[in-house]
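Hi R.,

Here's the chain you asked about this morning:
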Amino acid sequence: QVRLVESGGGLVQAGGSLTLSCAGSGSTFSDFSVYAMGWFRQAPGKEREFVAAVSRIGTNTYYADSVKGRCTISRDNAKKTVYLQMSSLKPEDTAVYYCAAERAYSNSYFTSSNAYTYWGQGTQVTVSS
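And here is the predicted structure, written out as tokens:
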């Protein structure tokens, strides 16, 4: 069974911080380090949008302009976990946040949702004003 499980979402006031985690399990993720990872989010009535991505060994990262400077993506391959640290949160950051994984054959990352095969179930982040 292939699973990506997000956690760490919740309700936070504007200006606050949250750290999301995404853990991989199952035989497919026996070697987590071969997967490029991404975070996406989807607000009510809106399309899913890219937030951040990280390469297989974590040396390359990329952020959406909307979160640049406020979010940090990182990973711990030994723990098969990717993180999204978010700070200075705004009400417009309210969304369901999803992590995604795609096998990569170089130290690259992917910013399109279409590039990813494996997805978690999502975790809700609500930022109150």
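One quick note: The first strand starts at residue 3 and ends at 7.

Cheers,
M.
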